[in-house]
Amino acid sequence: MATNLFFSRDTKVYIELFNSSGASTGVFEVPVLDGFSFSQAQNSTEVTLAEMENSAGVSKRGRRVFNDSLAPVEWSFATYVRPFESAGENVTGNANKRTGTNGHTQHAVEEALWAMFVGAADYVATTTSADATLTGITSDSTDMDIDFSNSNKSLLGVGNIYFSLDDATSNRKVYKCTDAVVNEASLDFDIDGIATINWSGFASTLVEASQPTRTVFEGINATNNYIRNRLTQLTITADDKATFPGNQTPVTAISAAANGVITANGHGLTDGDTVTFVGNCGLTVSGTDIVGGLSFTVANATTNDFTIGVDTQSTSGSFVSGQSVVGDGDYSLTLTGGSVTMTNNITYLTPETIGSVNTPIGHVSGARSISGAFTCYLAFDTTDNDGTSTDFFNDMTSATAKTKVVNSFATKFLVGGSAATPRLELSFPTAHFEIPAHSIEDVISVETTFQALPSTIDSTNEATIKYVGVTPDV
In terms of C-beta density within 10 A (0-12 exposed, 13-18 middle, 19 or more buried), how is residue 36 classed? Predict the structure, then answer.
């Protein structure tokens, strides 16, 4: 009798989602990388006997083992980040059949996992537009946005994850992770790699099943929707620009006018930027400097001038050249590596009834956590060191910075480039930064860790994720 062996490289993974009524809303085929895993352990109790000798010199020594419960299924795998633009309505295997913009909306091969991670499971994949109030996912012809607006839930989205071994043959063996949840999504910016996400989570039971019929598989065979990490860019802007001024430009003049004009040669600012004046300008009203140490919105920007919407005509004193600089809070850091980890801190609950083998009954979510780190060379610009990694370290360790227990930096990772397609944008509007640590290697680097925080402790605006793709080239 021939023996059939199963090889991991012959495996395919399918994810089945459900609506709030429990009806299946689509089966996604999601290509995964080598190194996937799934398993369900068992919890047991051991009872032992140990007593002293009796009069005959005999000591009872014995043990019994009882099966108490099944542990939650633990599963993990990695996927590439693969955004794409849907080919349109009524295309076999497409991501939706929406009528808006002829169905040409932005999606991702792995979007089913994001739907489970950030909200309820009521994500309709193939028939109607997903309800953003349930999932936090919105798609249009420009991009697919993912936020955490619906993530403050005790119960997050569940689905069935199928691991189909030897998928292409009649001897396939399919295992189903029932009522699976996504606990963690981790992105690593390997400079020489392709953008990937490592997913992990839990499920109630692991059972043998039949191969599901896939309904959503658009983009999985494309060759133009992979993202190269080498093109990734980082932008960070401090909220407190007086303490963390970033790029700075000396102010050489302020006009006396109803709408004061600031002259700062080569300032690099554009309309709408926020700028802070560091130092005293000497323009006072009733003894108070009306510009120094304050922040304003830039308007009417030219190469060397801009306005700040402040009347400088009725001030006392005069501006002295070189007393003040304007800082935009921007730091120009070029990455050599980095990572972002998002965690739901899910706990699976299992009864403890004696006399039977208990099975997990479901999950509850914990505190949501988003953290990350990035590395860059310790760079020093001999001409203008403002906004460099060396300047960033100096500002983070300044006397003023040490008086602040909380800081806030708008942080954005542009994975794949700032305007390229495909790309992935990770935005953290109020990230809290720790002091950078030096890494002593062939080239000295600094590593900075951060926590993505909401604007208030109970808000859900700590992160947004944007996918921008192209029409799959298959």
Answer: middle
C-alpha to C-alpha distances, 392 to 11, 247, 253, 433, nearest whole angstrom: 47, 10, 27, 11
- 65's CB contacts (< 8 A; 6+ apart) are 44, 45, 46, 47
CA–CA gap between residue 474 and residue 471 (Å, rounded): 9
pLDDT score for 122: 62
Render 293-351 in DSSP notation, one character per residue. Answer: T-EEE-BS--SSEEE-S---TT-BS---TTS-EEE--EE---EEEEEEEEE---EEE--
Question: Comparing C-alpha atoms, which of 225, 281, 274 is closest to residue 252?
Answer: 281
Q: What is the largest CA-CA distance in the chain?
A: 110
Buried b (16+ CB within 10 A) or exposed e, 354-372: eeeebebeebebeebebbb
Residues 29, 188 contacting (CB under 8 angstroms): no
Kindly state the average pLDDT of the residues 35-44. 94
Q: What is the chain's mean pLDDT, rounded?
A: 87
Question: What single-letter DSSP state applies at residue 21?
Answer: T
| Bond preceding residue 436 cis, omega within 30 of 0 | no
Is 246 buried (19+), middle (13-18) or exposed (0-12) by CB count in 10 A? buried
